[in-house]
Design a protein that fits this description.
Blueprint (H helix, E strand, L loop, with lengths): L1 H22 L7 H36 L32 H4 L4 H4 L4 H14 L7 H7 L18 H14 L2
Helix pairs in contact: 5-7
């Protein structure tokens, strides 16, 4: 019986010492508040980075608008498309004929197109670069496209070698 009492007393002492150690934690530090402060700090850092990115985008847009709607072409403003792998041919290229700016066309692709389709295909290349059309019919056609942003009187310096070759080929078929 004494053994049982001794065990009970020892268990009681151990439990009371555990609860006393828990009480010794500095009551001035609230770990939950500290963790939430870290979370809020990380969130503020993330939002600050997003804000800086938005400010940079707005500044770039403002610089583009400050050039005015009719400006000379700036070759540093646009990187013309390069030869791309077949899987990525039309990625991020707007329009009805994106392949005219991304890959060399051949006669078989153009042979059965109407003169109107050839005209639109050729001029869509210019429209993608922001050419301001003098012909009302072309201007009225492209102004309805959400991606068309008329900015330049001359875009010849912005055209890639692929686009220049395709323009010449399409023009040849238009003249037949």
């Amino acid at each position: 019986m004494r053994v049982v009492y001794t065990i009970v007393i020892l268990c009681g002492m151990i439990c009371s010492s555990c609860s006393e150690q828990e009480k010794k934690v500095d009551p001035g530090i609230d770990l939950k508040k500290y963790e939430s402060t870290i979370d809020r700090s990380e969130e503020l850092d993330r939002k600050e980075r997003e804000l800086q990115q938005k400010e940079l985008e707005l500044k770039q847009q403002a610089e583009g608008l400050s050039q005015g709607p009719i400006a000379e072409a700036n070759p540093d403003e646009y990187i013309p498309p390069t030869n791309r792998r077949p899987g990525n041919t039309y990625r991020n290229v707007p329009g009805d004929y994106p392949h005219a700016s991304t890959q060399y066309l051949n006669a078989n692709e153009l042979r059965y197109l109407s003169k109107q389709d050839l005209l639109l295909m050729r001029n869509e290349i210019f429209a993608r670069h922001g050419y301001i059309f003098k012909r009302d019919d072309l201007y009225n056609h492209f102004i309805t496209k959400p991606w068309y942003n008329p900015r330049f009187k001359d875009v010849s310096r912005l055209l890639s070698p692929i686009e220049k070759a395709n323009i010449n080929l399409i023009k040849g078929f238009e003249d037949l």
